[in-house]
Amino acid sequence: MQASAAKEGRAKLEVAEATDGFCKGNRRARSSIAVEQNVHGWTCCDSIKEMKKIIHALAIAIAVALGATAPAFAQAPYVGLGLGAFEMDTGQNKKSGLGGFLKLGYDFTDFNRFLGAEFRVGTSARASQARVDYFLSGFLKLNLEFTREFRGYGLIGGTNLKTSYQTTAKQYSKTGGAFSFGFGGEYRIDRDFSLAGEWVRYATKANAATLTTNFAGLDVNGFTLDIHYHF
User: Fold this and answer.
1) How many CB atoms are closer than 10 A to CB 166?
2) How far apart are CA 88 and CA 124, in angstroms?
3) In sequence order, what are the residues at sequence separation of 6 or more whose Cβ sits closer than 8 angstroms to the Cβ of residue 140?
4) Strand residue runs (E) in the chain
5) Using DSSP, how many helices (H) and how many strands (E) does the chain show?
6) Which among 12, 88, 117, 212 is least buried, having the fewest CB atoms inside 10 angstroms?
7) What is the pLDDT of residues 63-117, one digit of tens each?
8) Could you read off the pLDDT of 141-156 as tens digits, one per residue?
């Protein structure tokens, strides 16, 4: 029993000595790290502060670069080309044909970010018996920007146009003015170019009852894809 107690005492002594040695070694290691930090003049906190400064500077540089290059709808004139389907309704039937137009526009974003104006001149191919020989349109453009690159818009104005209707016996035509309206969406590709898709009601003139006796004109809708060049 006495031998067992002696063995147990020696075991406890060895554990105590090992623990003391580990603690002393650990203190020496921490001391060595502290000396190394003092010699080189840095600490963990200093390193974190430097990293934060670098990240902050990079974030500012990126923001400035993006602000300088990101497209936006600024006040400027633009020209455009629109191509698509023109639906022509005689009051008895509807036919669609290829049509197009050239446009000149201006955004008054410095004066009022919501306002712009457009002037258009265009024509359509004959679709069965109906055709838009030419049209001249003027619109007030109401813009609503959703992002720097994309905006929606509404159009309200008037159109002077000549439409015609061909039968086997005779061709009828009518020239006159009409109330016009429409809406679309525009995406700015870069500083120079943008793409738009739109629907416009150019004229509401059809009268089926007098189609071949007193031709009043056609109902005309345009569904087009437009490309713009901004100056």
Assistant:
1) 14
2) 10
3) 115, 116, 117, 155, 156, 157
4) 76-89, 94-107, 115-124, 130-145, 150-166, 171-188, 193-203, 219-230
5) 2, 8
6) 12
7) 444 444 445 677 789 999 999 999 999 999 999 999 999 999 999 877 778 999 9
8) 999 999 989 999 999 9
